[in-house]
Write a structure and sequence with these properties.
Helices cover 47% and strands 3% of the residues. The protein is mainly alpha-helical and 152 residues long. The protein is extended.
Length: 152
């Protein structure tokens, strides 16, 4: 029991859902580092069960599946790759990596995708031109600039 005025060892609850999810994941994996696969499976199960009703068309007879917009084989390949990547990301906790370092490495995925696209598919990425001196924001030609409020 902490003395009066002494700081508590437990952090204050967070109202940010992404932060509380990261804290929960860190606590679960610190107590049982090999629970990453179970966490990934449960995440996929919950998302699948949540999205399942939207995949059916209810008619006078029995419910049937909606017509697919994406062919099954590429869809299953994408899901399998995403699942494998999620399992590997969560398996990293078995090596006692701090959550902050883990988040930094996971956020580097876009750069890896850009590099792989450049190396294997010969994609070319054109950098945005630097903003002009008087431009405070980069605007799209299709979107009109935001006018300042007359009250400011």
């Amino acid at each position: 029991m902490a003395a009066a005025g002494a700081p508590d060892s437990q952090p204050a609850p967070s109202s940010d859902p992404s932060r509380s999810n990261a804290i929960t994941t860190e606590r679960l994996t610190s107590e049982n580092p090999r629970s990453g696969i179970l966490i990934t499976f449960l995440q996929f199960l919950v998302v699948s069960l949540y999205a399942l009703p939207a995949q059916f068309v209810f008619s006078a007879r029995l419910p049937r599946l909606r017509k697919r917009r994406v062919p099954l084989l590429p869809y299953f390949a994408q899901v399998a790759l995403f699942f494998a990547l999620s399992v590997l990301n969560n398996a990293a906790f078995a090596y006692d990596i701090p959550m902050s370092v883990h988040i930094v490495f996971r956020s580097g995925g876009m750069i890896v995708n850009l590099l792989l696209g450049w190396l294997f598919v010969n994609k070319r990425y054109v950098p945005l031109p630097p903003p002009r001196r008087n431009d405070s924001t980069i605007a799209s030609p299709d979107i009109p600039p935001i006018k300042s409020s007359p009250y400011s």
